[in-house]
């Protein structure tokens, strides 16, 4: 089955491709020009649905199956921030490095060197016949001394529960087993196999 990804995040494309061997995974930008999608809902689920619907309508192909991921990190001492605002924590048009730096500074400003945290991923699937969404979570802690280059986004400052290394240091195969995205995708694949 051809699965079109409604994302322009290369880290997500890489991870979803690695987790979906049994589908032909295509970023939507391979089919049409990338366009801005306004993610103005207040939940991961609704934002994932907005992205999947927008790309489904733009493709103008009733047979296509579109999958979107809306995700983010929630930090306990920050009352769950940045949460749904993870991609623009340091402001509009900023990049992963600036967002990570802003999170490090927010923790330091509170005088803490670590805090419990979790990642959330909502995955939405849209076809001409139905819309579905599923979730996955990964728990652990964030630290103020980022380490490693693997993964993307906030991974160099996130240590999954049961580990001492960050996701920036741990092998991709470990993130693949533990991640919010892989848990949500395994539910999504169950749905996709029924199509
Ligand atoms: P699309 O909307 O095009 O999919 P995006 O990067 O804007 O790309 P989101 O709105 O879902 O995606 O924001 C997710 C942000 O949360 C992402 O930019 C990272 O900063 C962070 N994030 C999500 N999953 C992550 C992961 O597995 N590792 C590290 N950071 C992650």
Brief overview:
31% of the residues lie in helices and 25% in strands. By secondary structure, the chain is of the alpha/beta class.
Please outline the major beta sheet: 6 strands, mixed
Q: pLDDT average, as an integer? A: 97
Order of helices and strands: EHEHEHEEEHH
CATH architecture: Alpha-Beta Complex
Shape, principal axes of CA atoms: globular
Number of domains: 1
Query: What is CATH's topology name?
Result: Maf protein
**Strand residues, percent:** 15-25%
The radius of gyration over CA amounts to 17 Å
Count of β-strands: 6
User: Helix/strand/pairing class, anyone?
Assistant: alpha/beta
Helix content: 25-40%
CATH class group: Alpha Beta
End-to-end distance? 9 Å
How would you describe this protein?
This protein is an alpha/beta fold and 195 residues long. A 6-stranded mixed sheet has the order 2-1-3-4-5-6. Helices cover 31% and strands 25% of the residues. The mean pLDDT is 97. The protein binds inosine 5'-triphosphate (ITT). Inosine 5'-triphosphate binds at residues 7-9, 12, 39, 51, 69-73, 86-87, 96, 99, 119, 151-155, 179, 181.
């Amino acid at each position: 089955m051809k699965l079109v990804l409604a994302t322009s995040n290369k880290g997500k494309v890489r991870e979803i491709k690695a987790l979906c061997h049994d589908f032909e995974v295509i970023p939507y930008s391979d089919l049409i020009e990338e366009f801005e999608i306004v993610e103005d809902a207040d939940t991961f689920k609704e934002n994932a649905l907005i992205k999947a619907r927008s790309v489904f309508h733009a493709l103008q192909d009733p047979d296509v199956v579109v999958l979107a991921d809306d995700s983010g990190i929630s930090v306990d001492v920050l009352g769950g921030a940045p949460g749904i605002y993870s991609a623009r924590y340091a402001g509009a048009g900023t990049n992963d490095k600036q967002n990570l730096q802003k999170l490090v500074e927010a923790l330091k400003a509170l005088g803490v060197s670590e805090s419990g945290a979790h990642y959330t991923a909502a995955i939405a699937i849209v076809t001409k016949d139905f819309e579905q969404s599923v979730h996955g979570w990964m728990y652990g802690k964030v630290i103020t001394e980022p380490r490693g280059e693997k993964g993307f986004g906030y991974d160099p400052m996130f240590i999954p529960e049961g580990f001492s290394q960050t996701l920036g240091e741990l092998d991709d195969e470990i993130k693949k087993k533990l991640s919010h995205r892989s848990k949500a995708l395994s539910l999504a694949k169950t749905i996709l196999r029924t199509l």
